[in-house]
Design goal:
The protein has 444 residues and is an alpha/beta fold. It has 10 helices and 16 strands.
Length: 444
């Protein structure tokens, strides 16, 4: 995963005025409406507590890594159960990792023999998952690593801050054809709707924009509605750091993407366009490790709310065991999130961020139609916010009849939470206004 460097041109400063969210393209609308998705990293390496891709040539010799892949037999894998966990959690799409940096492909690919069909298991994982998603009404999406240790015969995965890279076997032109062939399979055979690209920092890729443009154009020619992100970086690393997002409107792709780096830098951001934040229930682990330390359901729910209030999607990772089963702790966490979403999902799904910009991480707002939802995350009993011109027709605690008293004073709204109303995760004030909430300019 990458180290974070913030770029001012990708977010709006909190002091800016009269800014509005960008209009979302038709093909991206399902994505922004969904707001919540499941990431899935799955590997046999969890049997020895090693991370997918990155342990190749480091903690494990390349030959030992490949041996574990070739001998894999995940007899407890149940695609329907995985998708059911996501659906019950309130997730609307799944981003499955069918090929990480190691190059081991979890589908019946014709581009390489290093795939799941040449193992004792010998079953097409992508086929099972895509069919389970279709059956349960979940949108199937795929991660895809541009970097490929096996195909290029690299000794180990390069770091983003490396200045010397092992060469791409056969040159980038030939390798791009390999990438195109695999991506075409994922579109044509499994109907992926979104590519979450990774491993794009090799110099032969980022030094030449023609490759990412050619790949993007090719994929769009196969499916005009396919969306994608993370095909390029805006610049080479500065002081060993990269930016996770980029101005996709001037480059290739359909939405911004940021990764969790364990800090709170993202809490100072607000994107006007579509974007997504990825993390794990046990960050920094994305693939299974028996020593994983899990976040609480409250932490995960509040992160989702904070991301939605910043106009973004939350992509939360599940890490199945090597045998295909999912441990009880992860099941419980996703179930608890799902219970919350059943009651409060209306304030997340199909919303956009604003009109209020985030305040110090303990307050965000979301909106849709003629509703504005004020999310109070730290037990506030009152909140003072800039006034907008639209008339407030009603103010109440969400999903109750409890009215919220408010007044307008010196260009500010002052809202008072009724006594005895508390919510451990997120106390939500629902405002019904005259006019469209989306038309209100962003305010600090």
């Amino acid at each position: 995963m990458l180290t974070l460097l913030l770029f001012a041109n990708l977010s709006i400063a909190l002091a800016q005025k009269k800014e509005r969210n960008l209009k979302v393209k038709n093909e991206v609308k399902w994505f922004t409406d969904a707001r919540f998705g499941m990431f899935i990293h799955w590997t046999p390496l969890g049997a020895v507590n090693q991370e997918i891709g990155w342990s190749w040539g480091r903690e494990l010799a390349a030959a030992d890594y490949q041996k574990m892949c070739k001998e894999w037999n995940p007899t407890k894998f149940d695609a329907d159960e995985w998708v059911r966990i996501a659906k019950n959690a309130g997730m609307k799409y799944i981003v499955f990792v069918p090929k990480h940096h190691d190059g081991f492909s979890l589908w019946d690919t014709k581009a390489t023999d290093f795939n799941i069909m040449n193992t004792p298991y010998a079953q097409d994982v992508c086929k099972q998952l895509s069919e389970a998603c279709e059956k349960q009404g979940i949108i199937f999406c795929t991660y895809y690593s541009i970097a490929d240790l096996h195909q290029n015969e690299w000794s180990k995965m390069c770091w983003v801050e490396d200045t010397v890279f092992e060469p791409v076997k056969g040159g980038m032109d030939a390798y791009l054809e390999f990438v195109k062939k695999q991506c075409a399979e994922l579109i044509q055979k499994y109907h992926t709707k979104n590519f979450w690209f990774d491993g794009f920092w090799h110099s032969e890729w980022y030094d030449n924009p023609k490759y990412r443009k050619e790949l993007s154009d090719y994929l769009k020619s196969l499916d005009a509605n396919i969306i994608m992100s993370r095909l390029q970086m805006p610049s080479k690393p500065v002081g060993g750091q990269w930016d996770d997002g980029w101005d996709f409107e001037k480059n290739v792709g359909d939405y911004h993407s940021r990764e969790d780096h364990g800090g709170k830098e993202w809490e100072n951001l607000y994107y006007k366009g579509p974007w997504e934040f990825c993390s794990s229930v046990a960050y920094p682990n994305y693939s299974y490790n028996s020593n994983m330390k899990f976040k609480t359901a409250k932490e995960l729910i509040q992160t989702m709310v904070k991301i939605a209030g910043r106009n973004g999607n939350y992509l939360l990772d599940m890490a199945p065991r090597p045998d295909g089963s999912v441990d009880d702790t992860q099941k419980r966490l996703f179930s608890e999130i799902g219970d919350w979403m059943k009651t409060y999902g209306e304030t997340i799904y199909q919303t956009e961020g604003g009109p209020y910009l985030p305040l110090k991480g303990d307050f965000v707002s979301t909106r849709k139609n003629n509703k504005i939802y004020l999310h109070l995350l730290s037990g506030q009993t009152s909140i003072t916010l800039p006034a907008f011109d639209n008339k407030i027709l009603s103010a109440k605690i969400f999903q109750t009849a409890a009215k919220v008293k408010f007044k307008k004073e010196n260009g500010k709204f002052i809202f008072a939470v009724p006594a005895n109303y508390k919510n451990e995760n997120d106390l939500i004030i629902e405002l019904t206004i005259k006019g469209a909430a989306a038309d209100i300019a962003l305010m600090e």
